[in-house]
Amino acid sequence: DVQATRATHLCLAVGAGWRRVACMAATKNNIIWFRKGLRLHDNPALLEACKDAAHVYPIFILDPFFLQQSSYKVSVNRYNFLLESLKDLDASFRSRGSRLLVLRGKPEEVLPRVFQEWGVHKLCFEMDTEPYARTRDARVRQLAEEAGVEVHAAVSHTLYDTDMLVARNGGSPPLTMQAFCRLVERVGEPLPPAPDPPAQLPPLPPLPPPATTSGEEGEEQGRQRPSADPAVTGVPTWQEVGFKEAPVTIFRGGETEALRRLDASFSDPSWVASFQKPDTDPAAFERPATTVLSPYLKFGCLSPRLFHARLLAVYRAHPRHSQPPVSLRAQLLWREFFYTVGAHTPNFHRMSGNPLCKQVPWQDDPELLAAWREARTGYPWIDAIMTQLRQWGWVHHLARHSVACFLTRGDLWVSWERGMEVFEEHLIDQDHYLNAGNWMWLSASAFFNAYFRVYSPVSFGKKYDPEGKYIRKFLPVLKDMPSRYIYEPWTAPLAVQRAAGCLVGRDYPAPVVQHAEVSKRNIARMAEAYRANKSSDADPDEATPAAASSAAVTGRGRKSGTSAAATTSAAAAAGAAVSAPSATTSSRRQGQSRSSRQASAQAEPEAAGTSAVGQTRGSAGGRKRQRTIAEALGATTAGKAARGAGE
DNA sequence: TGATAGTTGTGTAC
DNA sequence: GTACACAACTATCA
C-alpha cells in the first residue's frame, strides 16, 4: 500500500502526466468527502477523486453527532474554527473552478441519497481511526458497496499508517516514546507530501433548471432541492448551527491561516532547530512559546507530512538540531505515538476496560469538579489557565499539565475522564487519542508513573512568571494584587487585598483545598492504588477497586478473570459505604473483606488510604468534607483562608 | 531475568 | 547550582 501510494505521488507529481491522466477518460462523477483533512495541500484523497473525473463533488457533511450527543460537547470556539476552515476550503475550491458543498445530516443517510442522485462512481476520503469515525466509515463502506460505489481511503492525517507501524512492531504498539522512536527509525521517513492539486479542478455539473415558479425561491412547497443546490449547501454561521454565545478565541481556522502560521514558525530556522519542548514557557501569551499549530493539525488544515518535510529541511541545514523526545519534530512523533497506541487499545479513552490504564479509585465530587472547570479553585495559576482554556480554546502544554495534575492525582482526586471531557469541550485542538493519552499520562494512569512528582499550583507558574502577568491577563480581578501575593492571594493582609480591590472570599474564591496537605495524602493514595493494581495483576481473580465497582455497573472488569462473587460483594459494599456516615466508616472498614474494602475506597476515597497519612488526615479531601469538619472543629484550611480575607 | 532509562516536580539542605 | 527525599515504577532489551 505504501509503495502504491508513493507511486501515485510520483506519477501525479509530474504536471504534464497529471493532465494527461485527467483528460484521458474524464467520464466519472466522484466525491471527495472532507471530514478532517480540511486542506488542498497534501491531499491524496482529493487527487484520487480527480482521477478520470468529469465532475468532482467536494462535500462536507455537518453531522449532528457532533452537536446533539450529550456525551460529546463542543464549544462554539472549536465549532466556529471548523466553520472558518470550511469557508477557507470553499474559497480555495472557488478559485479552482469549483466549490465546497456543505450537506446536513447523518453521513449514513446523506451519502446513499447523493450516490444515487449524482450517479457517483467513486467516494474518496481521508482515513480516520477514531472510534466514532471507524464505525461510521465501516457503515458508509457497506452502503457504498450496496450502491455500487467504489471507495478510496487515503492515509494523510498521520505521518504513517498506524496499522503498518503496529505490524512492523510485531502486532502490538510500542508503549514508550523511546521504543516508538526506534520503530520509526526502522521504518524510515514518512512519505513526502502529495503534490498540490491542479489550478483547475474538475467542476461540479451544471444544476438542473429550477422548478416552475412558485414563490420567490422558485421552488414548490415540499419539493426537495437538488442536493448540490448552492442555496442549501453554503457554510453556515455559528448562529445558524444553534450556538447562542459568540466565539471568542483569537485563533482563526483554515488552511490559509495554517500555512501562514507554519511559515511564521519557520521564519526563524534556528529557533526551529533548537526547539526543546520542556524549556518553553507556559505563561507566555503575548507570543506563545510554541507554534500553536495543533488546532490546524487536528482539523487537517495543516498536513503533518508537510510540517515534517519542512522540519527535515531545517535540520539538514542545522546539523546540531535538537532531538526526540523534546525536539519540534518529536512533537509530531508524540502525536503519532498516541494515535498508534490509541487506535490499537480497547477503550483507550476510558479507565474501565482499558488494559493500559491503572484502575484508580477516583472520587466523584461534582463541586470540586465544577470549581476546577469554572476557574474558581482559589489558585490563581490554575484558574487563569482554565480561563484561558475557555476563552482561547488553547493553552500551553505545560499549563495543561498543571491543571490536569491538580484535578487528578495532585489535589482534587477527580477522575482524569472528567478532565478529559472538559478539555474535549473547550480545546480547539481537541484530538481524541492525544487528549486521552495525555490525561492518562498526567494522572499517572498510564505511560507515566512517577506519581510523586506533583506540580505545585503555586510554585510551578511562579518559576516562569514571578510577576504574574499571565494571571493578571486572564484573571483581571487580580490585576492589582502585588506580585508577592498574586499566586497566593489568601496570604495577603486584608489591607493589601482592599488596596488591590480584591477581597479573597468575596471577589475571588478562597482555595478549595490546601495543596500541601492533599498532595501529600494523594501520593499515598496513588501508592495504594498502584499496589492494588499490582496485586490484581498477580491475581486476576481479585478485582482492583475501580475495576470491581465499574464491573458492577458495566458487566466488564479490567481482567476477563474478574470473579462474579468479588464483583457482587464489591458493589454491595460500595452501596453501603455511600450511605454510611463518614465518621463510622473507618472502623466499619476493618471488618470488610479485601475486595469490598477496595470497593468502599472507590465510593468514599477520603477513607481509602491504609497508610497513616490516609487514615489520620482528612481535613482537605474535598469541599463537602471540609465543611463537615469545619462545623465540628471550627477550623479548616478554607476557613482560615476565609478569615484571612476578613470574613 | 536483570539492568536500564524515562520530554517537562518540589522543597530543602548544602 | 547540585543533591536528595518523596516512595519505591515499568516497558524494553540484551
TrEMBL record:
Q: Name one GO cellular component term.
A: cytoplasm
Is Flavoprotein a UniProt keyword of this protein?
yes
Recorded GO molecular functions are: deoxyribodipyrimidine photo-lyase activity; DNA binding; FAD binding
Question: Spans of biased composition, class Low complexity?
Answer: 543-552, 577-603, 630-647
* Cross-referenced InterPro entries: Crypto/Photolyase_FAD-like_sf, Crypto/Photolyase_N_sf, Cryptochr/Photolyase_FAD-bd, Cryptochrome/DNA_photolyase_1, DNA_photolyase_N, Rossmann-like_a/b/a_fold
Q: Which cofactor does it need?
A: FAD
Q: Which residues bind FAD?
A: 290-294, 331-338, 429-431
UniProt cross-references to PANTHER family, sorted A to Z: CRYPTOCHROME (PTHR11455), CRYPTOCHROME CIRCADIAN CLOCK 5 ISOFORM X1 (PTHR11455:SF9)
Gene3D superfamilies per UniProt: 1.25.40.80, DNA Cyclobutane Dipyrimidine Photolyase, subunit A, domain 3 (1.10.579.10), HUPs (3.40.50.620)
Biological process according to GO: circadian regulation of gene expression; entrainment of circadian clock by photoperiod
**Protein's UniProt name:** Photolyase/cryptochrome alpha/beta domain-containing protein
